[in-house]
Design goal:
about 300 residues; Leucine-rich repeat, LRR (right-handed beta-alpha superhelix); 2 domains; four-stranded mixed sheet; 1 helix; disordered C terminus
């Protein structure tokens, strides 16, 4: 770790040792600028327009205050800090990938911001069509997608350790789940998919270690590579409606060929198809008349 007193830029910074408060003025904060720096609990930004990637990573920072100058934040800039609540000004125009290795419980966006909005601590695009950031340590056990949502930002739900149930059924315009959307979502146990979902992206549910069984909607036709893979070696049962079983099977075969995995092993047994990818995933055919569990 580096001590903040050894890297102070006197032209743009003021530091109070007793309160461990750093004031940053009239500068852009560069990539990794304060990574592994100790001695900071609070930062006050004055006329700071941008924050670089991983700028405050692995610090003891507890609070950061922005004036209405901030325009961009980089990827993972608040990762491994002690910040629990973040508040962004109306000037913010671009937000990098969330800090998913963090203790953040809520994020607030100024109501006059033209690009983003927040509802109950969750960040959306201004029109509420995309979920941008669901804080890692938000306290709710269940989250229900609003009807307005038709997209989820990559990594938006990564590494959550509290939520157990994810209900997307209201989001009827949601047809695709993105790369890494729920990567490392270790607490997740149950998912309700929207009825028009067509594709699950690469590593979408990678390392969701407590997700043991999933019922897929009839609309789904594609599952991308590593979607449900995890390190704990446990299998996951995917209940596949009969009408689209072949399309999903072909999708996985194609992905398998493209990434040079071990061959997919198929076993026909009575009314279900047992499909294993490197011994980790099992597909179970579901009767097409069976609907997803009611709320």
């Amino acid at each position: 770790m580096k001590n903040i007193e050894n890297i102070i830029d006197k032209n743009h910074m003021e530091y109070d040792k007793e309160s461990k408060t750093l004031i940053i003025k009239n500068k852009e904060i560069s990539d990794n600028e304060f990574e592994n720096v100790e001695g900071i609990k609070k930062i006050i930004c004055k006329n700071v327009k941008s924050i670089g990637n991983e700028a405050f990573k692995n610090t003891y920072l507890e609070e950061i205050v922005f004036d209405n100058s901030l325009k961009t934040t980089g990827k993972y800039c608040f990762e491994k800090t002690n910040i629990k609540h973040l508040s962004f000004p109306s000037s913010l125009e671009s937000m990098g990938s969330p800090a998913f290795l963090s203790v953040i419980e809520s994020v607030e966006i100024d109501k006059d911001n033209y690009c983003y909005t927040s509802k109950d601590g969750v960040v959306f695009t201004k029109d509420e069509s995309m979920i941008v950031w669901y804080p890692t340590l938000k306290k709710d056990k269940t989250y229900v997608f609003p009807e307005t949502v038709n997209a989820v930002h990559s990594e938006a739900f990564c590494c959550n350790t509290i939520m157990e149930t994810l209900d997307m059924r209201n989001a009827k315009g949601l047809t695709y789940l993105n790369y890494n959307n729920f990567f490392g979502f270790n607490s997740l146990k149950k998912i309700y998919f929207p009825e028009n979902l067509r594709e699950l992206g690469r590593t979408c549910f990678f390392n969701c270690e407590h997700l043991d069984e999933v019922s897929l909607p009839e609309s789904l036709i594609s599952i991308q590579s590593y979607c449900f893979m995890r390190d704990n070696k446990k299998k996951i049962i995917l209940n596949v409606p009969e009408k689209n079983r072949k399309k999903i099977e072909m999708s996985i075969k194609w992905q398998d060929a493209m990434r040079d995995y071990n061959k997919i092993i198929l076993h026909e047994k009575e009314d279900f198809l047992d499909m294993a990818i490197s011994g980790k995933i099992t597909f179970k055919q579901a009767n097409s008349s069976i609907k997803q569990e009611e709320r």
